[in-house]
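Researcher: Please translate sequence to C-alpha cells.
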Amino acid sequence: MKAFVNTVFTFFILTGTLYFLFFAGMPPNLYAEPLINLTVENKPLGDVLETIFEKTDYDYHLDESWEEYPVTATLHGLPLEPSLKQLLHNLNHSIIWESNNFVTIVIVGDQLPGGSITTIPHEHSDQFVPEETEPIPHAEEETNEDTESVDGENVSSE
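Model: Translation complete:
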C-alpha cells in the first residue's frame, strides 16, 4: 500500500512540475485572437474589412457590390467575431466561418445610392385591432340540424 501511495504522490509531483514548467514560461494569450481597435466614419466597407482582417490570420470574401458601402463604427478591444457583428449590425448579414481561416460575409438586400439598403418592409403595430367580421350565413341552422330535443334537452344525433 505504501508503494502505491508513493507512486501516486510522485505522479502528481511530476505532473505539477511539468505543468508549471510548460505554462509558467508562456506569455499570456499566446494563442488568443488579436483585439480590434478601430474608429471609422463613412468609410467604404471593403476598406474597413481589409484593415480588420490584416490584424488577424483570416482571409475573407465580400460581394463586390458592398465594398463601397459607407460604414461608421467604433471598435474598442473586440475579437474578430464581435467586431464584425458590430460593424455590420445595421445590415441584414450572415457571417460564415469556413475552414482554413476563411470568412465569407453575405449581405442581403439591394444597395441604393447614398449608402442605404432596401429590405422587405415589416409593418409593426403597437395595438392589434381586429377587423369586423360578418357572421357566416346559415351557421346557426347547421348547428341546430345536428341536435334533437328529448324531454326539453338538446341532444346530439351522432
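Researcher: Any highlights?
Model: The domain at 36-116 is CATH 3.55.50.30 (Phage tail protein beta-alpha-beta fold).
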